Amino acid sequence: VHLVESGGGSVQAGGSLRLSCAVSGFTISKACMGWFRQAPGKEREVVARIESSDITMIEYAVKGRFTISRDSAKNTLSLEMNMLKPDDTGMYYCAAADRQYYGVMCSTRALNRFWGQGTQVTVSS
What we know:
Structural class: mainly beta
Number of helices: 0
Number of strands: 11
Distance between the termini: 37 Å
Strand content: over 45%
Order of helices and strands: EEEEEEEEEEE
């Protein structure tokens, strides 16, 4: 199983980026998946999750600005990020659980099953 993130870069505050996570060796159509980020000197934190029936959970710090979605035909998970702030700077990772979750969001521990290598997002003021 391989998860490969792309789409990171450097933007000014208020800008937008769209991250993608291409997955091979694993079908994401009903998987519980998520996006995490890690800023320098800080712990990794979850920012968005999508469970098997496509219900999403967006963390408070990014609510209203970030959107998680999946394209099952392309086996790709995405994170649309708008109105970016300097605090959004960090390495962004996609992750997947190894079983399906319907009606209940998978935990961050469950998402430890599969990880990508990350893509860097830098937001300047």
